[in-house]
Design goal:
5 helices; Bifunctional inhibitor/plant lipid transfer protein/seed storage helical domain-containing protein; 115 residues; mainly alpha; 2 strands; Hydrophobic Seed Protein; Bifunc_inhib/LTP/seed_store; two-stranded antiparallel sheet; signal
Length: 115
Amino acid sequence: MMTTRGFLQVLVFGLVFTMFTIDQTWGEPDCYREKALVREHCMESITRKGDYVRPSEACCHMVDQSDMTCICRNITLEDEKEISVAKFLWVAINCEKPVESGTECGSKYLYDAFL
């Protein structure tokens, strides 16, 4: 029969293994696929290059189906090489799906409903 100590070791190992195999942080929804789809459909509006272009109907349709606040929190420095966080926020507003006030968006923006 397994001792209590041996049982606890197996239990802890199983718990640690489970924690490392989960692909999302506890309490935070996974929106990486949504981020990729919004980026694909809205690139003309959120690109760092050029002036802001109002979002297309296809872009707004994708925005409507996405959690824009989650996407905003998950914009990385790598993403910011190609997309403008400010334009992303404008797309969310123009598509009537604004990011929640107080959201940390990208590497340096704190969205505070100033737009």
